[in-house]
Amino acid sequence: MDFPLSRQIAPNLTFVAETGSTNADLIQDSANTDDFSVLVAGFQTAGRGRAGRDWVAPSGSSLFVSVLLKPAGVAATNFSWLPLLAGLAMTKTVAKFLPEREVGLKWPNDVLVGEKKISGVLSELIGDQSGVVIGAGLNLLQQKTDLPIENATSLVIEGATSINLDEVLAGYLANLRELYLEWVQASGNAVASGLRNQVIQACSTLDRSGNNRVRAILPASASAESEILGAAVGIDDTGRLIIQPDGQSEALAVAAGDIVHLRHN
């Protein structure tokens, strides 16, 4: 495939009809690959989501894209913002194609239409810690019977028409590049670049109507507690989700974990 629109934004773009994982391929070649290099696959046989979950979709039904980011002059301690940055870029992209739908960013980097997942992002640090590979999957053409879980959706299911893969990809890359360059120019400072405020505004986990109760399921090594029940009240300067636990006076900052929106349940 040619991707003329996308190549205007990312000239160093490679398309492969099939691969195991676009993230794994870019990580393997990262030492000899430039900043904002892009790998797109028509089909992945070993795609991965967060926490090592498989990401599988029928051939030709989804966008599979990975981008290598090597932010010069940015400390690796600020790389924690890159998954949120990519999630925000995809949220903006989906919202453009579904203007009548409620599209939001579920912390840290899932994109929801209502409460149904349409996209996920996986970030992986490269070996020399000079950058991160950001992989994104977006459901495009799947029907309900194609999706493995009930709370998933696609652009087609939500009513998008005339879906052009190059147009979708170009929209995502344009959003990603704009946010990324602003963040790099601010030396990775998410507050100074405006990234933190944009993420907070887009984040449906922080429902401003008060419908912000969540269950945070934590990695085994993160805390003595396996989960936290409470209200999601903010995102701090490092990108962590701030939760006010039920029955406690002190809020907690969560750096990693699976977040379940309870929504009055």
Brief summary:
With 265 residues, the protein is an alpha+beta fold.
Written overview of the protein:
The protein has 265 residues and is an alpha+beta fold. It folds into 2 domains: 4-202, 2-Layer Sandwich (BirA Bifunctional Protein, domain 2), CATH 3.30.930; 209-261, Roll (SH3 type barrels), CATH 2.30.30. The protein contains 5 helices and 12 strands. The chain has helices at residues 4-9, 22-28, 82-97, 165-185, 195-202; strands at residues 13-16, 37-41, 62-69, 103-106, 110-113, 116-125, 132-139, 213-217, 227-235, 241-245, 252-254, 258-261. It has a 7-stranded mixed sheet, with helices on both faces. A 5-stranded antiparallel sheet has the order 11-10-9-8-12. The termini are far apart. It holds the Pfam family BPL_C. Keywords: Ligase. GO terms for molecular function: biotin--[biotin carboxyl-carrier protein] ligase activity. Residues 1-184 form the BPL/LPL catalytic domain.
